[in-house]
Amino acid sequence: MADKKKTVPRKVVAENRRARFDYEIGEVFEAGIALTGTEVKSLRGGKATVAESYVSAKSGEAIIYNTFIPEYLQANRFNHEPRRPRKLLLHGREIAKLWQAVEREGMTVVPLRIYFNEQGRAKVEIAIARGRKAHDKREAAKEKDWARDKQRLMRDRG
Residue 48 is part of a domain; what is its CATH number? Predict the structure, then answer.
């Protein structure tokens, strides 16, 4: 019998649901995030937000700004600043791809979610996205409603 490793499901800490409505999501990347000990402890509590966050890929480094990770209550004077810029851990060619998309095509890099992977490491899912206009948002909402209604009709008939 082969040893079967237990696969722990991804624990999503924070999700940016608004991003899928406001942007057309393109290529998605998984990035590590450089955190301090108190930030990791606070993330395990599951109270972070990435709704108003954004990523900048200047000077060869990808940095995520405006992500709110609350202070860890049991930490004393060694606590972290809740909205400090945090470095994302990506390969050089991935950073170059992000930077080219932002510079050349007018795209934006938005974080979609923060989660812990199977090894228990904190990861950020970021995506290259293009902003939607108001009429595009209405069209996307109509398509989503129709897909939901279509599923309901198929379920009721079948």
Answer: 2.40.280.10
pTM for this prediction: 0.76
63-69: long-range pairs with CB below 8 Å, 24+:
63/87, 63/88, 64/33, 64/88, 64/111, 64/124, 64/126, 67/14, 67/111, 67/114, 69/35, 69/39, 69/42, 69/43
Report pLDDT digits (tens) over 126-147: 999 888 787 777 888 888 899 9
| Whether the Cβ atoms of residue 123 and residue 116 lie closer than 8 Å to each other | yes
140 within some domain: no
Of 51, 66, 49, which is closest to residue 14 (Cα–Cα)?
49
Residue 143 placed within a domain:
no
Burial string for 12-30 (b: 16+ CB within 10 Å, else e) reads ebbbbeebbebbeeeeebe
